[in-house]
Backbone:
């Protein structure tokens, strides 16, 4: 296409969204100058976009349902855990093909301070890759290599906060007025105290409270997550604009899916719980339009780890869509609940609810991820069935701790809140399913049951509507990693138990027929299986067959 044709195409997209975008921007910011700047920058990012990405834009615009085709299998991973660095990931793409993976989520890889990183979710520079992992050029090489293999790449966009080491935060701390407006500063505890009355805590044990006092400046800063993660002030149009430029920067680096991290938290209002407020949706809607104008092949994946009624609104409406994809968090937690209680009723109810949702909704289904499992279950229903929230949570946690008679699981509590009695849970899928215990006890019968559980959960995930997302290591039954306890920067955060390094010697195990890893990788249900084993190997390779089976309502497994 010639430059004129491309420009025409851009103008058409721009025209399509201009009125609504301007309307929403002015509603939130009432600042025409900043809106104009945003529009100018959007065109600049479009003009700089590589030809091959523009081709992808055209192809996906012509086939907007491209990610709803039932042929996507995802895997999420920490770059360093998987292959040390980005070049390492590039060299392992064949392994991912063997896993049938064609959607790769690379966990946070941008510059972050050592020891104050929250696993990379405290970004100190949105334009720079962590030096140990490589450079921006390496990232672009990886995305291009993935695209050559028809693999899409997802990356985290941590938009709620920056690291206290980000240049904006440092300049704010140094007293530069302009940068102080990027965050929330308070001279005393009066207003923070008012917020604390209505805002729950994200990390009640590891990082209590929503504010951090900085003695060197004698002020409080809003920090909903860890104290070193400063909440950005989206009331400031400069913050919105700059973050949009960061988002477009990654779109232009070849990222296909932008995971908008902790998005429900981005708008704060005194007297509320500061979650899912209407302005959050306005901002996401603006992001969607900005993407559709500049880089329509790029998808927004919302990280909305909330109760179901709060999740679906992030899809927006047919006329005014917001996110393209969301996580199916309730099903994930309910699945584990089923394992612990051996009661399928709640899962059945959850499946019925999902089946009633518009077919256009695309969920990312998963069993485990890098975070803890919060027991966000349907308690009103459980209560009807005689189960109260607190003892129920206590039971599930005890079960997965291995503290209940008959339990096979191993793992650890996360952020056990002494006040509410609440606690979340950490562990790998294999350890929670009993593989670790069985291997330790060298008990073959237990091991077969444990493998069956791992496979059952995965097989179930593959039948769910949406995109299945594996957590790297689960495909070979990676076990809990307790070495985080020796690291002073990690010891307080039990999520590191399931963030161990991928052990490549497992490839040798995969060659040994009958090893635990081989049985899991190849989907070998055993004779102890409670569900009817497929005559073929029930591996990821036959997921298409499973899908067809589900579509035809021959729900056989
Ligand atoms: C998201 C991430 C989590 C992180 C938090 C703060 O929930 O998944 O790991 O701690 O955001 O950025």
Residues:
């Amino acid at each position: 296409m010639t430059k004129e044709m491309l420009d025409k195409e851009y103008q058409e997209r721009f025209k399509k969204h201009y009125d609504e975008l301007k309307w929403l921007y002015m509603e939130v910011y009432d600042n025409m100058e900043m809106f104009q700047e945003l529009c100018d920058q959007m065109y600049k990012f479009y003009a700089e976009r590589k030809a091959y990405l523009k081709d992808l834009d055209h192809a996906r615009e012509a086939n907007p349902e491209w990610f709803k085709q039932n042929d996507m299998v995802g895997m999420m991973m920490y770059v360093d855990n998987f292959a040390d660095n980005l070049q390492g990931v590039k060299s392992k793409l064949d392994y991912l093909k063997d896993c049938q993976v064609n959607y790769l989520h690379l966990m946070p890889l941008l510059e972050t301070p050592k020891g104050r990183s929250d696993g990379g979710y405290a970004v100190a520079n949105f334009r720079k890759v962590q030096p140990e992992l490589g450079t921006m050029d390496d990232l672009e090489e990886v995305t291009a290599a993935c695209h050559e293999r028809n693999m899409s790449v997802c990356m985290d966009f941590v938009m709620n906060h920056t690291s206290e080491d980000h240049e904006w935060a440092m300049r704010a701390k140094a007293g530069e007025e302009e940068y102080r407006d990027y965050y929330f500063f308070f001279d005393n505890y009066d207003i923070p105290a008012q917020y604390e009355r209505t805002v729950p805590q994200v990390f009640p044990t590891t990082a209590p409270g929503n504010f951090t006092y900085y003695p060197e400046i004698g002020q409080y800063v809003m920090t909903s997550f860890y104290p070193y993660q400063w909440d950005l002030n989206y009331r400031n149009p400069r913050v919105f604009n700059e973050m949009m430029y960061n988002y477009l920067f990654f779109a232009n680096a070849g990222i296909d899916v932008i995971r908008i991290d902790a998005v429900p938290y981005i708008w704060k209002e005194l007297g509320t719980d500061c979650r899912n407020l209407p302005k959050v949706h306005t901002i996401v809607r603006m992001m969607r339009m900005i993407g559709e104008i500049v880089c329509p092949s790029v998808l927004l994946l919302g990280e909305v780890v909330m109760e179901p009624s709060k999740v679906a609104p992030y899809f927006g409406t047919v006329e005014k869509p917001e996110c393209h994809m969301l996580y199916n968090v309730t099903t994930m937690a309910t699945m584990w609940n089923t394992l612990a209680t051996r009661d399928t009723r709640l899962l059945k109810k959850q499946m019925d609810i999902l089946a009633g949702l518009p077919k256009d909704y695309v969920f990312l289904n998963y069993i485990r991820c890098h975070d803890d499992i919060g027991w966000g279950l349907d308690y009103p229903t459980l209560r009807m069935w005689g189960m109260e929230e607190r003892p129920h949570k206590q039971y599930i946690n005890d079960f997965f701790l291995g503290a209940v008679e008959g339990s096979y699981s191993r793992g650890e509590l996360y952020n056990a809140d002494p006040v509410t009695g609440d606690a979340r849970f950490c562990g790998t899928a294999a350890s929670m399913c009993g593989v670790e215990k069985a291997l330790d006890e060298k008990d073959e019968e237990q091991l077969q049951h444990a493998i069956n559980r791992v496979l059952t959960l995965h097989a179930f995930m593959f039948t769910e509507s949406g995109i299945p997302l594996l957590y790297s290591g689960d495909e070979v039954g990676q076990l809990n990693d307790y070495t985080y306890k020796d690291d002073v920067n990690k010891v307080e955060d039990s999520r590191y138990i399931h963030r161990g390094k991928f052990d490549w010697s497992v490839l040798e195990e995969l060659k040994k027929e009958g090893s635990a890893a081989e049985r899991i990788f190849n989907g070998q249900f055993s004779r102890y299986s409670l569900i009817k084993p497929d005559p073929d190997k029930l591996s990821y390779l036959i997921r298409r067959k499973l899908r067809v089976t589900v579509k035809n309502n021959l729900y056989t497994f």
